[in-house]
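Quick one:
INPUT:
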């Protein structure tokens, strides 16, 4: 039996929307708010992706593609143009400190591992690390927070040792919300590229490994496995990306691109 393409798209859309709806409901986002955001995304993508000769798609074609009226397309475009440009997602200050401690040549040893840092003094110290990566946050406050979160520990009488390479934060943290949206966006971009028959290059790497007949007793062991191997893999990728990062100034290079890979654990009770 031949599957109706529209039906297949509708079924796929419902499935991919379920985790999004779950997150939005937990965040207090109503259907009405989501509907307006979805409308903005439809207009934005139709305008940016389907124009000719590098120009924006005209309002009539956007209206035809999205099912909106030309008046509504104009209203949404005016709204988008009036918005302040969204700042590029920034790492939280804690994540920046941990990343600097693991990647900045001043704070890593000859073997590439993070140094144990003296609290203060000359050279590469904990105070110097905070001065470089913590911005205007008070040193005493950020130190207490790093200790409380068990991201660092005291080393000797006057030093600190880092315990974690990354920080996930809590769900109410705006940085974590940006991280969540970035993860969904980046994975979605790869999927959208791969199913685009008119893409300008080969498919991008995207693979999964799962089993729908697992015992719940295996969950804890599987989590440990992914945390250990996943973290080791991501640290290798992070080191490679740092090594190959462009050293040209912004004026010397074309617009930079973002490269990376994501790793996530799958656990679905709905199958």
């Amino acid at each position: 039996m031949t599957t109706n393409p529209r039906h297949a798209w509708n079924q796929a859309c419902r499935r991919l929307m379920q985790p999004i709806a779950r997150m939005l409901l937990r965040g207090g986002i109503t259907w009405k708010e989501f509907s307006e955001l979805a409308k903005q995304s439809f207009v934005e993508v139709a305008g940016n992706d389907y124009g000719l000769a590098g120009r924006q798609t005209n309002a009539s074609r956007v209206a035809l593609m999205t099912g909106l009226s030309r008046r509504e397309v104009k209203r949404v475009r005016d709204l988008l143009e009036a918005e302040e440009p969204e700042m590029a997602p920034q790492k939280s200050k804690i994540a920046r400190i941990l990343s600097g401690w693991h990647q900045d040549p001043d704070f890593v040893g000859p073997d590439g591992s993070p140094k144990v840092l003296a609290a203060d003094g000359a050279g590469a110290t904990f105070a110097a690390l905070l001065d470089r990566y913590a911005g205007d946050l008070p040193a005493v406050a950020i130190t207490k927070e790093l200790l409380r979160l068990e991201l660092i520990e005291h080393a000797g009488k006057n030093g600190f040792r880092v315990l974690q390479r990354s920080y996930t934060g809590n769900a109410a943290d705006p940085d974590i919300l940006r991280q969540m949206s970035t993860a969904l966006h980046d994975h979605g971009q790869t999927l959208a590229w791969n199913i685009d028959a008119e893409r300008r290059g080969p498919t991008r790497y995207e693979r999964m490994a799962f089993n729908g007949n697992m015992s719940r007793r295996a969950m804890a062991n599987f989590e440990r496995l992914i945390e250990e191997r996943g973290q080791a893999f991501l640290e290798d990728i992070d080191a490679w990306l740092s090594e190959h990062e462009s050293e040209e100034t912004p004026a010397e290079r074309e617009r930079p691109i973002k490269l990376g890979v994501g790793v996530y654990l799958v656990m679905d009770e709905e199958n």
